[in-house]
Amino acid sequence: MPKLRGHHLICLQFFIGKGYSHKFVKNTFRVLKNAKKVTVVDGIDDICKACPNHIGGRCPEEMKELDRLALFLLSINVGSRVCWDEIKRKLPKILPIWIRRACKGCRWWKVCKDKMLKFKCQPHQTHG
User: Fold this and answer.
1) 20 to 30 A Cα–Cα from 73, which one of 7, 12, 30, 41?
2) Structural domain contains residue 122
């Protein structure tokens, strides 16, 4: 069962085969192929292993902030085992917030945008 960190639970839903390197793309496709159910981890996951941005087993702090935001929006905790389809079902409600808070300034926005916009994004509503 693949191990994925918070922001990968959302971002990988829009993966189209582009990435840092051939090794990264190949690894990502391999992980996604087995991602019917995933274990949520804190920090380096099965995707990060092929990423050139983690140095000495550590990622930049902004990735940890994205992880926290993703887990909050998805209502998922580290250590949980979740179905990939369950995450996908939650996306329409959370994408407007994710796009505003996480995608702004992301180097991958242009890559993800078209696939992301196919989801029916409804404004996040609070009941009170």
Assistant:
1) 30
2) no
Domain count, the chain: 1
Q: How far is CA 40 from CA 21, 25, 78, 99, in A?
A: 24, 21, 5, 21
Residue with tokens 């935001």: 69
Separation CA 48–CA 54 (nearest Å): 7
Confidence at 66, pLDDT banded by 50, 70, 90: very high
- Torsion, Cα of 52, 54, 55, 60 (10° steps): 130
Q: Is residue 124 part of a domain?
A: no
And the tokens for 54? 């983690």
